[in-house]
Amino acid sequence: MRTFLDRARTLFDRATALLFALFLLALAVLAAYAMGVALDIAAADAAGRTATVAPHGDDNGDGRIDEDESGWDCTTMGNRRCGPAPAPVTIVLPVDCTGPGGCTVEGLPAECRNARDATVLCVTVASRPGGPALLRSLPHRPGTPAYAAALRTLDAETHPRY
């Protein structure tokens, strides 16, 4: 006579076998589906049809987003400047070469005297709000290479952002 535990063990063994069979069946269905998808892709490639996905905002479909396309974000892409490039600023100062001490430039800020090759950049920085005070705070003497380098850094820091 079979005991209750023997019957429970037999029932458990049958349930386990049934679950294993269902697992194998599901695995076979997934394998068949994957094989069908792979065959469809191979058939499409053989027929010369390929599917390409362009990024969102890539208007011409070349695989990258260029500056004039709808997906371009000027605040995070490229040189991070939005809008057209600013027009160059021309500063004209009258030069007087009639005196005995050589040429003098009328209107040249005192901070830019003796700036030599960096005179134009110095005048540009001096023309910005707070520029003369910033020029006076530079630790280098005008006309030295260190002054020109510090002036370029100051120009980059105070240049208006677009």
Which structural class do the helices and strands define? mainly alpha
User: What's the total helix number?
Assistant: 4
Mean of all residue-level pLDDT scores: 78
Head-to-tail CA distance between termini: 93 Å
Radius of gyration, taken over Cα atoms and rounded to an integer in Å: 38 Å
Secondary-structure element series: HEEHHH
Residue runs with pLDDT of under 50 for 5 or more positions: none
User: What order do the strands of the largest sheet run in, or round the barrel if closed?
Assistant: 1-2
Structure description:
The protein has a domain of 64 residues. It is 44% helix and 2% strand. It has four helices and two strands. It has a two-stranded antiparallel ribbon. The longest helix is centred in the N-terminal third of the chain and has 43 residues.
Tags for this entry?
single chain, about 160 residues, mainly alpha, 2 strands, about 45% helix, about 0% strand
What topology emerges from the helices and strands here?
Elements: H1 4-46, E1 95-96, E2 104-105, H2 119-126, H3 131-136, H4 145-158
Antiparallel strand pairs: 1-2
Helix pairs in contact: 2-4
Explain briefly what this protein structure is.
The protein has 162 residues and is mostly helical. The chain has a domain of 64 residues. The protein has a two-stranded antiparallel ribbon with strand order 1-2.
